[in-house]
Amino acid sequence: MRAIWTGAIGFGLVNIPVKLFSAVQASELDLDMLDKKDHSNIKFKRVNEKTGKEVAWENIVRGYNLDGHYVVLTEEDFQKVRPEKNKIINITEFVDETEIDTMYYENPYYLAPEKNGVKAYNLLRDALEETGKVGLGTYVLRNKESICLIKPHENILVLNKIRFGEEIRDTSELEVKETKSNPAELKMAIALINQLSGEFDISHFKDTYSTELMKLIRLKAKGKKIEKPTLRVVHSRSQDLMEQLKASLGKKEKGGGRRKTAS
User: What pTM was estimated for this model as a whole?
Assistant: First the structure.
Protein backbone atom coordinates (compact mmCIF):
# COMPACT_ATOMS: atom_id res chain seq x y z
CA MET A 1 0.00 0.00 0.00
CA ARG A 2 1.12 3.54 -0.74
CA ALA A 3 0.76 6.18 1.97
CA ILE A 4 -1.42 9.16 1.00
CA TRP A 5 -0.39 11.33 3.95
CA THR A 6 2.35 11.43 6.57
CA GLY A 7 2.23 13.31 9.84
CA ALA A 8 1.51 12.60 13.49
CA ILE A 9 -1.30 11.90 15.93
CA GLY A 10 -1.39 14.52 18.67
CA PHE A 11 -2.38 12.72 21.89
CA GLY A 12 -2.06 15.13 24.82
CA LEU A 13 1.63 16.12 24.79
CA VAL A 14 2.54 12.94 22.90
CA ASN A 15 3.14 13.03 19.15
CA ILE A 16 2.91 9.70 17.33
CA PRO A 17 4.46 9.76 13.81
CA VAL A 18 2.13 7.91 11.42
CA LYS A 19 1.32 7.25 7.79
CA LEU A 20 -2.22 7.27 6.40
CA PHE A 21 -3.42 4.65 3.91
CA SER A 22 -6.77 4.24 2.15
CA ALA A 23 -8.67 1.34 3.74
CA VAL A 24 -11.09 0.77 0.87
CA GLN A 25 -11.05 -0.17 -2.79
CA ALA A 26 -13.88 0.03 -5.27
CA SER A 27 -15.81 -3.16 -6.03
CA GLU A 28 -17.65 -1.88 -9.11
CA LEU A 29 -16.30 -2.61 -12.59
CA ASP A 30 -14.04 0.00 -14.17
CA LEU A 31 -16.02 0.99 -17.27
CA ASP A 32 -14.50 3.26 -19.95
CA MET A 33 -16.44 5.83 -21.96
CA LEU A 34 -16.33 5.14 -25.71
CA ASP A 35 -17.43 6.83 -28.91
CA LYS A 36 -20.63 5.07 -30.03
CA LYS A 37 -19.49 5.18 -33.69
CA ASP A 38 -16.15 3.33 -33.48
CA HIS A 39 -15.67 2.50 -29.76
CA SER A 40 -12.66 4.81 -29.48
CA ASN A 41 -11.78 5.78 -25.93
CA ILE A 42 -13.04 9.20 -24.82
CA LYS A 43 -10.30 11.42 -23.40
CA PHE A 44 -10.81 14.54 -21.29
CA LYS A 45 -8.67 17.61 -21.81
CA ARG A 46 -8.03 20.61 -19.59
CA VAL A 47 -8.95 23.46 -21.92
CA ASN A 48 -8.64 27.22 -21.57
CA GLU A 49 -12.21 28.54 -21.94
CA LYS A 50 -11.02 31.65 -23.85
CA THR A 51 -8.49 30.18 -26.30
CA GLY A 52 -9.87 26.63 -26.52
CA LYS A 53 -6.31 25.32 -26.22
CA GLU A 54 -5.25 22.47 -23.90
CA VAL A 55 -3.37 23.53 -20.74
CA ALA A 56 -0.54 21.42 -19.28
CA TRP A 57 -0.77 20.39 -15.61
CA GLU A 58 2.28 22.48 -14.69
CA ASN A 59 0.51 25.62 -15.94
CA ILE A 60 -2.65 25.07 -13.90
CA VAL A 61 -3.14 26.99 -10.64
CA ARG A 62 -6.04 27.16 -8.21
CA GLY A 63 -7.99 30.26 -7.34
CA TYR A 64 -11.05 31.57 -5.51
CA ASN A 65 -13.57 33.86 -7.19
CA LEU A 66 -13.86 36.79 -4.78
CA ASP A 67 -16.28 39.50 -5.91
CA GLY A 68 -15.78 38.62 -9.57
CA HIS A 69 -11.99 38.46 -9.44
CA TYR A 70 -9.82 35.38 -8.94
CA VAL A 71 -7.38 35.26 -6.03
CA VAL A 72 -4.73 32.69 -7.01
CA LEU A 73 -3.49 30.39 -4.24
CA THR A 74 -0.11 28.64 -4.20
CA GLU A 75 0.93 25.55 -2.25
CA GLU A 76 2.71 27.87 0.18
CA ASP A 77 -0.56 29.69 0.84
CA PHE A 78 -2.26 26.43 1.86
CA GLN A 79 0.61 25.64 4.21
CA LYS A 80 0.44 29.09 5.82
CA VAL A 81 -3.13 28.49 7.10
CA ARG A 82 -2.66 26.74 10.44
CA PRO A 83 0.40 24.76 9.25
CA GLU A 84 0.15 22.36 12.22
CA LYS A 85 -3.23 21.15 10.92
CA ASN A 86 -1.56 19.89 7.73
CA LYS A 87 0.70 17.57 9.68
CA ILE A 88 -1.07 16.70 12.93
CA ILE A 89 -4.23 14.71 13.64
CA ASN A 90 -5.08 16.42 16.90
CA ILE A 91 -7.21 14.28 19.26
CA THR A 92 -9.17 16.70 21.44
CA GLU A 93 -11.61 14.38 23.20
CA PHE A 94 -12.65 10.76 23.72
CA VAL A 95 -16.23 9.50 23.42
CA ASP A 96 -18.24 6.30 23.14
CA GLU A 97 -18.53 5.37 19.47
CA THR A 98 -22.26 4.63 19.93
CA GLU A 99 -22.80 8.37 20.55
CA ILE A 100 -21.83 9.18 16.93
CA ASP A 101 -24.66 8.96 14.41
CA THR A 102 -23.69 6.93 11.33
CA MET A 103 -24.95 9.85 9.20
CA TYR A 104 -21.62 11.53 9.90
CA TYR A 105 -19.39 8.69 8.68
CA GLU A 106 -17.57 9.17 5.39
CA ASN A 107 -14.30 7.34 4.58
CA PRO A 108 -12.09 4.90 6.55
CA TYR A 109 -8.28 4.96 6.50
CA TYR A 110 -5.57 2.82 8.07
CA LEU A 111 -2.98 4.43 10.32
CA ALA A 112 0.44 2.80 10.56
CA PRO A 113 3.25 4.02 12.83
CA GLU A 114 6.65 5.24 11.69
CA LYS A 115 9.51 3.26 13.22
CA ASN A 116 10.12 5.84 15.94
CA GLY A 117 6.43 5.89 16.91
CA VAL A 118 5.64 2.19 17.37
CA LYS A 119 5.62 2.20 21.19
CA ALA A 120 3.35 5.24 21.53
CA TYR A 121 1.11 3.97 18.71
CA ASN A 122 0.58 0.63 20.44
CA LEU A 123 -0.02 2.37 23.75
CA LEU A 124 -2.83 4.50 22.27
CA ARG A 125 -4.35 1.46 20.57
CA ASP A 126 -4.28 -0.60 23.79
CA ALA A 127 -5.70 2.28 25.86
CA LEU A 128 -8.61 2.68 23.42
CA GLU A 129 -9.22 -1.08 23.56
CA GLU A 130 -9.29 -1.04 27.38
CA THR A 131 -11.59 1.98 27.72
CA GLY A 132 -13.88 1.21 24.77
CA LYS A 133 -13.52 4.84 23.69
CA VAL A 134 -12.67 6.42 20.34
CA GLY A 135 -10.56 9.53 19.83
CA LEU A 136 -12.16 12.56 18.16
CA GLY A 137 -10.07 15.18 16.43
CA THR A 138 -9.39 17.18 13.28
CA TYR A 139 -6.91 17.01 10.43
CA VAL A 140 -6.35 18.48 6.95
CA LEU A 141 -6.13 16.27 3.86
CA ARG A 142 -5.96 17.67 0.31
CA ASN A 143 -6.53 21.19 1.62
CA LYS A 144 -9.80 20.27 3.34
CA GLU A 145 -10.25 20.11 7.09
CA SER A 146 -12.22 17.17 8.43
CA ILE A 147 -13.28 15.68 11.74
CA CYS A 148 -12.10 12.16 12.39
CA LEU A 149 -12.48 9.41 14.93
CA ILE A 150 -9.63 7.04 15.69
CA LYS A 151 -10.34 3.55 16.95
CA PRO A 152 -8.59 0.18 17.20
CA HIS A 153 -9.27 -2.45 14.56
CA GLU A 154 -7.55 -5.82 14.98
CA ASN A 155 -3.93 -4.80 15.72
CA ILE A 156 -3.97 -1.36 14.09
CA LEU A 157 -5.61 2.04 14.41
CA VAL A 158 -8.28 3.12 11.95
CA LEU A 159 -9.15 6.72 11.16
CA ASN A 160 -12.75 7.30 10.09
CA LYS A 161 -13.37 10.62 8.39
CA ILE A 162 -16.66 12.10 9.58
CA ARG A 163 -18.64 15.09 8.38
CA PHE A 164 -19.17 18.41 10.10
CA GLY A 165 -22.68 19.02 11.45
CA GLU A 166 -23.32 21.78 8.90
CA GLU A 167 -22.67 19.34 6.05
CA ILE A 168 -25.78 17.31 6.91
CA ARG A 169 -28.84 18.70 5.17
CA ASP A 170 -31.88 19.58 7.28
CA THR A 171 -34.70 17.05 6.98
CA SER A 172 -37.19 19.93 6.94
CA GLU A 173 -36.43 20.19 3.21
CA LEU A 174 -38.37 16.94 2.76
CA GLU A 175 -42.14 16.74 2.86
CA VAL A 176 -43.11 13.52 4.63
CA LYS A 177 -46.75 13.24 5.64
CA GLU A 178 -47.13 11.95 9.19
CA THR A 179 -49.48 8.99 9.67
CA LYS A 180 -50.23 6.91 12.75
CA SER A 181 -49.31 3.24 12.35
CA ASN A 182 -52.06 0.68 12.73
CA PRO A 183 -51.33 -1.27 15.98
CA ALA A 184 -51.87 -4.67 14.32
CA GLU A 185 -49.66 -3.77 11.35
CA LEU A 186 -47.01 -2.37 13.69
CA LYS A 187 -47.01 -5.60 15.72
CA MET A 188 -46.63 -7.62 12.51
CA ALA A 189 -43.80 -5.39 11.25
CA ILE A 190 -41.95 -5.79 14.58
CA ALA A 191 -42.40 -9.57 14.33
CA LEU A 192 -40.84 -9.49 10.85
CA ILE A 193 -37.91 -7.40 12.11
CA ASN A 194 -37.35 -9.82 15.01
CA GLN A 195 -37.52 -12.77 12.64
CA LEU A 196 -34.82 -11.29 10.41
CA SER A 197 -32.65 -10.09 13.30
CA GLY A 198 -29.20 -11.48 14.03
CA GLU A 199 -25.61 -10.53 14.78
CA PHE A 200 -23.94 -8.27 12.21
CA ASP A 201 -21.72 -10.14 9.75
CA ILE A 202 -20.47 -8.18 6.72
CA SER A 203 -19.73 -11.44 4.87
CA HIS A 204 -23.51 -11.84 4.41
CA PHE A 205 -23.30 -9.07 1.80
CA LYS A 206 -21.53 -9.37 -1.55
CA ASP A 207 -21.38 -7.07 -4.58
CA THR A 208 -23.53 -9.41 -6.67
CA TYR A 209 -24.42 -6.68 -9.18
CA SER A 210 -20.80 -6.37 -10.37
CA THR A 211 -20.52 -10.17 -10.54
CA GLU A 212 -23.68 -10.44 -12.66
CA LEU A 213 -22.55 -7.53 -14.85
CA MET A 214 -19.24 -9.31 -15.49
CA LYS A 215 -21.16 -12.45 -16.53
CA LEU A 216 -23.19 -10.35 -18.97
CA ILE A 217 -20.01 -8.81 -20.40
CA ARG A 218 -18.50 -12.25 -21.01
CA LEU A 219 -21.72 -13.48 -22.68
CA LYS A 220 -21.84 -10.40 -24.93
CA ALA A 221 -18.20 -10.95 -25.86
CA LYS A 222 -19.17 -14.43 -27.07
CA GLY A 223 -22.04 -12.98 -29.11
CA LYS A 224 -24.77 -14.58 -27.02
CA LYS A 225 -28.23 -13.05 -26.76
CA ILE A 226 -29.20 -11.86 -23.28
CA GLU A 227 -32.83 -11.75 -22.25
CA LYS A 228 -33.99 -8.82 -20.12
CA PRO A 229 -35.50 -10.17 -16.87
CA THR A 230 -38.97 -9.09 -15.79
CA LEU A 231 -38.94 -6.67 -12.85
CA ARG A 232 -41.00 -8.00 -9.94
CA VAL A 233 -42.99 -5.27 -8.23
CA VAL A 234 -42.40 -5.60 -4.49
CA HIS A 235 -44.90 -3.07 -3.23
CA SER A 236 -48.24 -1.99 -4.62
CA ARG A 237 -50.63 0.54 -3.12
CA SER A 238 -53.53 -1.65 -4.21
CA GLN A 239 -52.37 -4.52 -2.03
CA ASP A 240 -53.25 -4.78 1.63
CA LEU A 241 -50.28 -3.94 3.88
CA MET A 242 -51.27 -6.52 6.50
CA GLU A 243 -51.43 -9.23 3.83
CA GLN A 244 -47.95 -8.28 2.60
CA LEU A 245 -46.58 -8.52 6.14
CA LYS A 246 -48.23 -11.90 6.69
CA ALA A 247 -46.84 -13.16 3.39
CA SER A 248 -43.35 -11.95 4.36
CA LEU A 249 -43.51 -13.79 7.69
CA GLY A 250 -44.88 -16.91 6.02
CA LYS A 251 -42.12 -16.86 3.41
CA LYS A 252 -39.44 -16.83 6.08
CA GLU A 253 -41.09 -19.67 8.01
CA LYS A 254 -40.94 -21.84 4.88
CA GLY A 255 -37.15 -21.54 4.83
CA GLY A 256 -34.37 -19.41 3.38
CA GLY A 257 -33.11 -15.99 4.37
CA ARG A 258 -31.11 -14.95 7.37
CA ARG A 259 -31.46 -16.97 10.56
CA LYS A 260 -31.84 -15.37 13.92
CA THR A 261 -28.78 -15.87 16.08
CA ALA A 262 -29.41 -17.79 19.24
CA SER A 263 -28.61 -15.89 22.38
Answer: 0.69
What are the per-10-residue average pLDDT scores of the chain (263 residues)? 90 89 86 89 91 93 90 82 73 92 92 94 95 91 85 95 90 86 88 85 80 81 80 61 80 52 44
Identify the CATH number of the domain defined by range 5-25+80-165: 2.40.290.10
What does the alpha-carbon distance between residue 66 and residue 43 come to, in Å, rounded to a whole number?
Answer: 32
Q: List, in order, residues 6 or more apart from 27 with CB less than 8 Å away.
A: 207, 210
Please give the C-alpha separations between residue 252 and each of 46, 153, 201, 245, 257, in angstroms, as whole numbers.
55, 34, 19, 11, 7
* Ranges of each domain in the chain: 5-25+80-165, 183-253
Q: Which amino acid is at 152?
A: P
